């Protein structure tokens, strides 16, 4: 079911949601269940999610409502939608946004190709927004494309890291438990809403660290770092099939492996129409090191770039491509190859439009094995830095190891 | 009193400390007061702080105890000590660390030149650690260099952003209030400790957003981003006094100003023994752009580097220096200057030892004014990226705008 980038090892946060910051925290794991129940164990036939996203984010200290704040140039709410979309058994996702943000939201859905999303007008309060979402799901109109759900999950638009396990727990609990005083005592807003307007039962279930809520500016920083870390867990070294290329390519691969622990380093040939490479792209590897050994042109790199552009890989996350060129600085001074290699600036501008971050890397290739190891190590450090930071301000630069 | 880097605009977090995550949060603003009182309004004659730092950080999900986790290569606890050191009326700071971390702690104090610090052995529990700290302060030995305080502030080692205002509130409250049931009802650990062992009064006072506690890995990410932001609020453009240098230097200064809003851009000449520049360094500007116009040597940059090395500026934070060189790419292809400019790699390695991050930047200087503006703009974007990320993996690189 894991359709997203490989999850990074994150610390386990103990305790139920109510150990979180505020009452609103509870809503993430509060679920509304219609009177029609479901078999325990299995998740129900029809589950929908309602995302109240009408907030104006005054606590964030930034003009943009926090659900629209960019992380790696993509709005926060798009990450939340992505997390819910991954769960195949959530049939409909209803987002409540204010009228003034309706167009923004539509363009986000289009740009990031979100599926199963319906929009409703947000209310003046969070309660009202949830209510409008529920109403849209409850309405039994012929021309409504929404299927009436058995269970509705209320999920904050600003909790981007929710995972299927937690959602399943919520849905299962929705069947198994009635409403407890315990919940009410803690005054969970949307539990009360559920009781008041929807003649439903409700129950508080345990959350996880993934449920943390982006509330303050520092949370945006944390979210960006977590996402950068998640998409930096695999590097693919791409090389053509010529023997000497493969040789130095594999040397670089080895050094990358030893320098970057915890990072999966694979290698793949571009030859044979890159069938295997296609699979690596499908498996969502977001980092590529393209080896162009003795050549100072970009044939290999351009092949890779076209493959990436044809794929959907770059829609959700910026993909890093490092075009590596080897050169014996003793025999050929770097300057001699500069003119040609400077072309990379133009390529980089082009592919940035498609969310690909292209950098050039010239690695010294001395005869002395020990010196070669050292320059490879230096190259690995630079590659690691570029992948870690995904700094769009430095695209098209030719770095030297 | 603001001795640190200029604080960045952070959102206001409402509510008292008890709206924080756990009971332990309260301790940050709980203060222990001996029976000897102080005049209201004024802060007392003798204030000391005790930092329990014996934790093993199991929730962090990393082997290193969180108080020793590096942020910009400096351990977290050093930032907390720095925050307390800034407060002149805190006479003694007692840190409780486990025996096995005693040497690590000593080396941290030495390396970052922390003052007014005493170390005691941590206890098996947080309570015991605080108690050991209090005992060291209470002891009335001739050979104890600690002065017996009127008020002791208990502060978590993993709350690096505490500011003087909050500490003053705590100390004032220590005088003005007795111990309330309210506090006890919330079971604030160290309030109970205070009552049980130290025959003191205690009171819970309001905290601020700065008091947030580094608990999980994501908090380390947030802390690093906040610190990077704080030390990136000012850039000084350094140029020598020759007319043409000043001209292009000021052009770059203007573009930096327009490209980087919210960042203070100043300029200073290196001439006249750089008297004013000394002041800018003393005022803790952590970012320098050194303009070497037509030259492809590093005279200006080297002068600046020696000034920085002589100062204490680099002890606490990595200082970014961008050595800028202008070149009309039409008349002189960049490659022609490369050999010479590549020297920067060696300089960069040297000064990295002193916590200076040196990068080279070659800016195209065409006759066409519009093109010049564009390459200056490109240069500004690169400078901004280097300052924002402080990426030590890319030091010594020669970037091209």
From TrEMBL, chains A, B:
Q: Does the keyword Transit peptide apply?
A: no
Any idea which GO molecular function terms this record carries? D-ribitol-5-phosphate cytidylyltransferase activity
Signal peptide interval? none
Name the Gene3D superfamilies on file: Spore Coat Polysaccharide Biosynthesis Protein SpsA, Chain A
This chain's function reads: Cytidylyltransferase required for protein O-linked mannosylation. Catalyzes the formation of CDP-ribitol nucleotide sugar from D-ribitol 5-phosphate. CDP-ribitol is a substrate of FKTN during the biosynthesis of the phosphorylated O-mannosyl trisaccharide (N-acetylgalactosamine-beta-3-N-acetylglucosamine-beta-4-(phosphate-6-)mannose), a carbohydrate structure present in alpha-dystroglycan (DAG1), which is required for binding laminin G-like domain-containing extracellular proteins with high affinity.
Query: What's its catalytic activity?
Result: D-ribulose 5-phosphate + CTP + H(+) = CDP-D-ribulose + diphosphate; D-ribose 5-phosphate + CTP + H(+) = CDP-D-ribose + diphosphate; D-ribitol 5-phosphate + CTP + H(+) = CDP-L-ribitol + diphosphate
Family note: Belongs to the IspD/TarI cytidylyltransferase family. IspD subfamily.
Alphabetized, the UniProt keywords read: Cytoplasm, Nucleotidyltransferase, Transferase
Under the heading Pfam families, the entry gives:
IspD, ISPD_C
Subunit (UniProt): Homodimer.
Q: Answer whether the UniProt record assigns the keyword Transferase to this protein.
A: yes
What PANTHER family has UniProt attached to this entry? D-RIBITOL-5-PHOSPHATE CYTIDYLYLTRANSFERASE (PTHR43015:SF1)
Q: GO CC terms for this protein?
A: cytosol
A single Gene Ontology biological process assigned to it is: protein O-linked glycosylation via mannose
Instruction: Please name the pathway.
Output: Protein modification; protein glycosylation
So what EC number does this one have? 2.7.7.40
Which region ranges are annotated with the description Disordered? Answer: 1-29
Q: Where in the cell is it found?
A: Cytoplasm, Cytosol
This protein is called: D-ribitol-5-phosphate cytidylyltransferase
